């Protein structure tokens, strides 16, 4: 399956809408995910980011509009193939665990790919080290600390070379180390030519790591462009979307304001 | 860590609530295998709740679950059968008192399996006899029909217990054996 | 009670006796009070009259779309139908020799009495399910528990425990869909809907679901405690579920239905008492 | 920083004395070993520590969940207003010590938002006439007034977290334990919450313990700082400003977030050749001073 590997725009959402229980959660959202790019998604609580991610990954069906992968609508893809291409990290790490131990959790998708047991062991060990979960391999995923759960759920998805990775708030609850490591891990994936989508509330990270940012408000796309120019949009605009520019951008604006006077 | 069976804290009560709700809800499901008899997977739940939380929790969960189900399906409670559900669970829960038995921490040995099966079968037969007797004594049901009913129900319940209940408890114990970090080394 | 998921019971339609707004404990008591005398009757007329009136009450005063009601009632209908034919063809009771033969094919004989009994049996089953549907479809479990605590003095500790259990039932569906999604994103694929894979599904989801429920029961208990729950009896309930004159009217109405049923069959001379027939 | 204005003689409200915690009989290393800390009246104490060091477990010890509601092995003692928790029903302790758990997904016991809050208030024997109002207040505080009748499990992550905060505040506890209350909130709401908690603290005598990785919204309100290390022991207890000024290297190596302003300051000063203690940049090959604009571009 090599078709479309060089595709610069692997995933595209076109006028996607979704409603549930009579409430429109996502309305007519259109944007594209590009290869080699780290796309940040931001927006208020309850704006519809997580729902949008579920739509992009094909776990939910849009009530209108379509999502297409390599130009082919998601519904036309075979389930197994789709999952090999799109990885997905849920907002609640516990929702993603399918096995009883940390070790098995990391080995799960490796085993599905029929790696030899020694190969699996090697890879799992290196993941354990990379995500600082050593000594926890026999624990149940549910008895980890919240931050460890988050790292485990990310690690389990990183173990695959999926072309598109959708992450819902991958860094929350992490200490400085872990968060930076996670983000640079994701950045490295993007630099390798893969597509990464990160939902986050951390504007410093958006500033530092993202190539492009999409702002969701009330279920529709409000802004789509580089982070730098987002900060220079009117204050009212940012305020309504619950965004606070990173501290450096704030200072820059303050300086420029002074210069203008 | 196993707790005393008479400890009644909020957690026990919530467990009873869940057990009862699950038992009540799954009691609707039955695969009819003959006149007046059906394989009720719900019996397996009694085995699980009894084994994991002891006879007292099992008894109350079974009783309340049965009463709820009766109320929802027919509006009348067949107390004999409701108590019977509780007694079944209580007998299955006797295994909880066995030494070294602790499926929540993955400790479930061969001799426990044997014991569990014995307790379960005895419990099923005894409770059905009790329900039958209760019906004859208090509800004025004719006795000849009940003999057939009790025998058929015993057989079908024992089948469910052996095919679903016992493996489920073993599955639980296995699952937890791996998760509790040190007991794997034994 | 099947409405837990939607969370809302009793929308715009208003009638004088809104079943959804009645006191659940009183409603339950009324249903039981109806079932008790009706379980003594064993003739199609009493039962059919009561059944028809119960259904009428459900439709008039309950706010249930009739399609939904039919959907939920249909399994009972099918069951009753099957029950009718088996009882008619293979009567368990000794049939009086003087009973009129309706028709026969070879050894299979259908007598009038057997038919009569079969009709009573199946109608009885329908009546009890209609009564319990009336209760189930119009009762919010939270309100039921509140009313059990307020009217029947059920200890809050037990009531909230059961309520927590009830809360889990609709959540199980949610949990199952979450688990299915988890398996899907992890690449395990979907399980097709064939009988054979049912066992596979049971293995994949059954024990984890139960394990999840048990884990959640601990967390729920911790959550209840950390919200200050001690289980002591004194509470000033925010939502009061009062008993009003409407509950009395409803009880009277339902008892009248029973009386009408009995009266009718007495007038027609068909009244017969139940004797443990099956 | 508020340190200067602090009255020195605030009385201790919650004292934890050499707490050790094991969750399993046969666990080799304990989750917490000999943790002592004191919360003073009306102060906001910030608890920092690397991931998995036992911060959340500590909060559960402070309100008596460990060992009174969940079996576990706890040594040492916790005193609230001079009284130990032993023999007390953990539910009663919870009425004094309110908590917001870290996991927003599994800390609710009712179906809808309103029922959840009403359940809390009924537990503290709040008279019925007041409950409605207090629910309103609590929801307004977390900007969730329009979600009053929603089912909790259908809310988004951030909305659930707000419900949890509202529930804890509705109890009007004397001591409030906040375990990463803003981790799922959008930036503006996080800042707003910090401000509101501060405002509440001026109105009510509530003593707060805060666990948070992202310090920015909270920094100006923090009175005291407690830092834990990987092994589950307390490393530093005292003035926050002092810690970030003098021991920031230590903090960084332990994986503790610095407030972003501190980080920016350090980066700027480093690039301007003012690195304290470090080797000064070589005269000839010194990079041009990094401007804020450069920082943004990177
Ligand atoms: N299962 C559901 N049923 C009904 N409504 C839902 C459901 N799940 C989410 N919603 C609603 O849809 C809206 C968007 O939810 P979503 O989880 O996508 O938000 P979000 O942008 O991810 O927010 P957050 O930043 O808080 O995670 C919210 O108002 C939420 O209450
Ligand atoms: N139920 C449990 N059984 C066994 N070990 C546990 C259990 N809960 C937590 N632990 C372990 O105790 C340690 C401390 O967990 P805790 O949740 O207190 O960490 P934390 O400091 O809050 O971390 P984070 O910042 O990631 O939330 C972790 O290493 C975790 O693996
Ligand atoms: Mg979300
Ligand atoms: Mg924690």
Structure, explained:
- The complex is a heterotetramer of chains A (about 260), B (about 190), C (about 280) and D (about 300).
- Chain B contains five helices and two strands, in the order αββαααα.
- With about 190 residues, chain B is mostly helical.
- Chain B has one domain (about 10-175): Arp2/3 complex 21 kDa subunit ARPC3, CATH 1.10.1760.
- A two-stranded antiparallel sheet of chain B has the order 1-2.
- Helix content of chain C is about 65%, strand content about 5%.
- Chain C contains eight helices and two strands; from the N terminus they run H-H-H-E-E-H-H-H-H-H.
- In chain C, helix 5 packs antiparallel against helix 6.
- The longest helix of chain C is centred in the C-terminal third of the chain and has 32 residues, at about 195-225.
- Chain C is flat and about 70 Å long.
- In chain D, the strands form two sheets. A six-stranded mixed beta sheet of chain D has the order 6-7-8-3-9-10, with helices on both faces.
- In chain D, strand 4 and strand 5 form a beta hairpin.
- At the A-C interface, helix 2 and helix 3 of A face helix 6 of C.
- One adenosine-5'-triphosphate (ATP) sits at the interface of chains D and A.
- Chain A: Belongs to the ABC transporter superfamily.
Task: Calculate the mean pLDDT score of chain D and round it.
Answer: 83
Intertermini distance of chain C: 29 Å
Helix tally of chain D?
11
Please write the string of helix (H) and strand (E) elements of chain C.
HHHEEHHHHH
Total strands of chain D: the figure is: 10
- Report the C-alpha radius of gyration of chain D, rounded: 21 Å
Q: Runs of chain D with pLDDT <50, length 5+?
A: 1-5, 275-290
Architecture blueprint of SSEs:
The complex is a heterotetramer of chains A (261), B (186), C (278) and D (298).
Chain A (H helix, E strand, L loop, with lengths): L10 E10 L2 E11 L4 E6 L5 H8 L7 E6 L2 E2 L5 H7 E4 L12 H11 L4 H14 L15 H13 L5 E5 L7 H16 L3 E5 L3 H7 L2 E6 L2 E6 L1 H5 L3 H6 L6 H14 L1
Parallel strand pairs in A: 3-8, 3-9, 6-7, 7-8
Antiparallel strand pairs in A: 1-2, 1-4, 4-5, 9-10
Helix pairs in contact in A: 3-4, 3-5
Chain B lengths: L9 H17 L4 E4 L2 E3 L2 H32 L5 H15 L16 H30 L3 H37 L7
Antiparallel strand pairs in B: 1-2
Helix pairs in contact in B: 1-2, 2-3, 2-5, 3-4, 4-5
Chain C lengths: L23 H15 L5 H18 L4 H24 L11 E5 L2 E4 H26 L3 H11 L4 H30 L9 H32 L18 H24 L10
The structure holds adenosine-5'-triphosphate (2 copies) and magnesium ion (2 copies).
What key attributes describe this structure?
heterotetramer; A: 261 residues; alpha/beta; Rossmann fold; six-stranded mixed β-sheet; four-stranded antiparallel β-sheet; 23% strand; globular; B: 186 residues; mainly alpha; Arp2/3 complex 21 kDa subunit ARPC3; two-stranded antiparallel sheet; 2 strands; 4% strand; binds adenosine-5'-triphosphate; binds magnesium ion
